[in-house]
Predict the structure.
Amino acid sequence: MERDVVVVGSGAREHAIVHGLAQSGATVWATPGNAGMAEEAEIFAAATPAEMVQFFGSRRPLVVIGPEAPLAAGWSDALREEGFPVVGPSARGALLESSKRLAKEVMRNYGVPTAEAKTAYNPDQLAAWVGAETRWPKVFKQSGLAQGKGVRILADPVEALATVEQWRELPQIWQDGILYEDFLTGYELSVQVVTNGHEYEWLPVARDYKRLTPDPKSPNTGGMGAVAPILDLDANAVDRINRQVFDPIMTYLTEEKILYRGVLYAGLMMTDDGVQVLEFNVRMGDPETQAVIPSLAVDWWEFWLALSHGQVPKVPPPHRAAVAVVMAAQGYPEKPVSGLPIRLGDALPDTLLYHAATTKRQGGWESDGGRVLTIVGLADSVPEARGRAYARVRRVQFPDSYHRPDIGE
Ligand code: AMP
Ligand code: GLY
């Protein structure tokens, strides 16, 4: 088989996936892709699976789907039906992410530890719960997909009611409901497994920096940086996470006959009372992927192809530490400014630069969204990788940007 592969998505996560595949000698396409990938992939437009089928004619390349939206919309099912080998769960599998309400129900039914929550379907209901609440903070979570921006931690009733009023203006979010959830404390880990719905293998554990700034009260974002591998889990903790989180989900997928060939991501809070699941994602994390992929020495073509056929590939121990720093445009996450000029600067050894939201104008680069670039440093240790990442960040001339100074600290 020719090593032909299409990556679906347009972020820095997909750039990292493209880069891994290009290094394994694959011929790579990307849709919608981004301008920064164009050196390694042929970019083309396909707004639907049908357009993808049309583009490839009788060819059937491997498809790796990066983001949650096409998975929730059933791309994986449609393309599999057309004969493409696909990495990515079915739409039913994707519900674990696209309906936080369903994910809660599954966790409850299968005994997966997670914070208590109930669902409000209208603002008055939620306001009434807030009025009667005695324990703060509380957490509001939009059940549907919200690009990492649907979660609010509310310190007190004043903040909570202000959010209710703000969200009252968004009728579409109430259909699937708002989870009203207990607040947990502890430290967070992103555990991602490659799975065929029955068996699974851990990818290197990563940590995501979700807050906009080092201030824990600053807004939640899609993720401002990541580190992999995180090595502070002992074998007991790994075993507990398997027994309490992944094994029950495998039972759920098997019992419900849900086709799942892809990555399952558990956002975990390690609390004094043990592990708790904050969320499931049905794809790799962004920016975790930008750290995890270059931390591994694997043939990514073989890896993803095996998974598309339902064989769970072996994951070797990480060969390098990776620190990924996101450079965001001014105004992110609320109103990022587009069209800001960027000069990427010279490359540095042991660093990678992934594009997310850039366009090329008159030969130069401009920002075109919130999270614009991810810069990765690679080394034998996290501190060294961190030094390299920030050295490369300093070479980028992007005056109207923001990045966290503390990734990997
Ligand atoms: P999620 O998208 O559900 O992972 O939520 C985004 C972020 O909000 C998480 O990474 C946590 O930092 C925070 N968060 C979510 N749920 C809770 C909770 N129940 N208690 C405390 N923090 C939470
Ligand atoms: N970095 C968190 C996510 O991808 O959802």
Summary: The chain has four domains: 4-88, 116-182, 185-308, 321-395. The first helix runs from residue 12 to 23. Residues 148, 208, 223, 281, 285-286, 288 surround glycine (ligand 2) (CB under 6 Å).
